[in-house]
Automatic annotation (TrEMBL):
Cross-referenced Pfam families: His_Phos_1 (PF00300)
Cited SUPFAM superfamilies: Phosphoglycerate mutase-like
Protein name: Phosphoglycerate mutase
InterPro entries according to UniProt: His_Pase_superF_clade-1, His_PPase_superfam, PGM_Phosphatase
C-alpha cells in the first residue's frame, strides 16, 4: 500500500485578509494578488501525483482549488469533493470586525491586559475557542467540543478514505485557524502563535489512524512556481 499523505493548502489571500478583518464563516473572494499567489502555487504542485482533492465549502477555498486544478495535468480527472467540516472557525458576532477588535476583546475575556501577554502565556486553542463562544452575542460560535470533533473527523475521514483506496497524496484546501488547530489536535505543542501564510502547504502523513506532521506552512511550492514561471517567460 502507498503511503497516505495530505497536502493541506491555506486558501489564497482574500479581500478580508488584506483589510485585516475577521473571516470565518463569512466569505470574500481572492484578490488579484491572492490569485497570483495561488497560480504560482499551482505551478509548484504540478508534478505531484494527487489521487483526490477536497476543499471546504467556503467560496475562497473553492476558488483556490479551482485555480490549482486548472493548472494540474490531472485536474480535470481528479475526484473532487467539498466538505464543510474543514471550513474555518465560526467567530459568531465577531465576523467581519477588524482583527484588532477581536484580538482586543479576547484577552479581556481571558483576563489578560493585552494580546501580547495572552499569547506569551501560551494560551490554548480551547481557551481561545471558549472566549469566542463567550464573546459571541449572536450565539453562532461553536463550543470547543463541537469544533474539535468537526475538524478532526473531517480530516480523518479524508485520510481514512485515501488509505482505504490504496493510499497516495490528497490535495486539500482549508483555512488558517483550522489548519493550525488540526496540528494542535494531532501534536499538542502547536499553539495559537503559529502563523500560516496564504497559499502555504502543510503536509501530514496518515497511518493506522494516526497523523504525523512532515511539513508545516511551507512556502517552497510557491517559490518553485515562481521559478517555473520565470523560466517560461525567458
Amino acid at each position: 500500500m502507498t503511503k497516505t499523505e495530505l497536502y493541506i493548502v491555506r486558501h489564497g489571500k482574500t479581500m478580508f485578509n488584506t483589510l485585516q478583518r475577521v473571516q470565518g464563516w463569512c466569505d470574500t473572494p481572492l484578490t488579484k494578488a491572492g490569485v497570483e499567489g495561488i497560480q504560482y502555487l499551482a505551478l509548484g504542485l504540478k508534478d505531484i501525483d494527487f489521487v483526490e482533492a477536497t476543499s471546504s465549502d467556503s467560496g475562497r477555498a473553492i476558488e483556490t482549488m479551482r485555480l490549482i486544478l486548472g493548472e494540474h495535468p490531472q485536474g480535470a480527472k481528479l475526484p473532487y469533493r467539498i466538505d464543510k467540516r474543514i471550513r474555518e472557525w465560526c467567530f459568531g458576532s465577531l465576523e467581519g470586525a477588524y482583527d484588532a477588535e477581536m484580538w482586543g476583546v479576547l484577552p479581556r475575556i481571558l483576563d489578560f491586559p493585552s494580546y501580547d501577554e495572552m499569547v506569551d502565556r501560551d494560551t490554548t486553542f480551547r481557551e481561545v475557542c471558549e472566549a469566542i463562544y463567550e464573546a459571541d452575542t449572536a450565539n453562532w460560535a461553536e463550543t470547543y467540543e463541537e469544533l474539535s470533533t468537526r475538524v478532526l473527523t473531517g480530516f480523518e475521514d479524508i485520510a481514512h478514505r485515501v488509505e482505504k483506496n490504496g493510499g497516495g497524496k490528497a490535495l486539500i484546501v482549508s483555512h488558517g485557524m483550522t489548519i493550525a488547530f488540526l496540528l494542535n489536535l494531532v501534536r499538542e505543542e502547536n499553539n495559537i502563535r503559529m502563523g500560516l501564510e496564504n497559499g502555504s502547504v502543510t503536509r501530514l502523513t496518515y497511518e493506522a489512524g494516526n497523523f504525523t506532521c512532515e511539513e508545516i506552512g511551507s512556502e517552497a511550492y510557491i517559490e518553485k512556481g515562481k521559478e517555473i514561471s520565470k523560466n517560461l517567460l525567458n
